[in-house]
Amino acid sequence: MITYYLEMRSEDELKAKPSLEGINIVEAEIKNFRFNKFLYEAVGEKWGWTDKLNLPDSDWRAYAEDSSLRTWVAYVQGSVAGYYELHSQESGNIELAYFGLIPDFIGKRFGGYLLSHAIKSAWSYSSTERVWVHTCTLDHANGLNNYKSRGFSVYDEIHS
After folding, report:
1. How many domains does the chain have?
2. DSSP code, position 16
3. What is the CATH number of the domain that holds 107?
4. What string of pLDDT tens digits covers the 160 residues of the chain?
C-alpha cells in the first residue's frame, strides 16, 4: 500500500470543477457524532476505512463535535450522496480529513465538484495558509487523480 500526502499552498492553485445541477452541498451546522459516524461508514465501507470503526461513542463525540471540525454533506434528490470533513489545525493548516461519495453516486461526475467545493470551503477560513489531504492505493482508483486535477501536489508518499 502507498499513502500519498498532498497539499495546496494557494487558493490560486485550485482548478475547480463547475457546479453540477442536481447536487446540493450543505454544512451540517448542528454537530451530531452519530451523523458523522453514519457518513464515515456509508462512504468508507467500500474502501476499507477501519481506523474509526470500533471507537466508542465517547471518542466519536470528542472527534466529530470538536469545534475544529466542520462537516459538509452532498445531497442528490434528497439522498445523502457523499460528504467531507475539514479539520482546522495550527499554523493555518486545514486538513481535508475525510472525503468521498457513497458507492451509488460514484461515476456520476459528482466527485470533482464535491472536491472543488471542499477546497473552496477550506480556503474560506480566514487563517488558511495550506490545505492538505492524504489518500492511499486502497481508495478509489481515481482518487489520487482527482486531487491532482484539482490542484493538489504530492509532497510525500509512504510505502507500507
Report:
1. 1
2. P
3. 3.40.630.30
4. 999 999 999 999 999 999 989 999 999 999 999 999 999 999 999 888 888 989 999 999 999 999 999 999 999 999 999 999 999 999 999 999 999 999 999 999 999 999 999 999 999 999 999 999 999 988 888 889 999 999 999 999 999 9
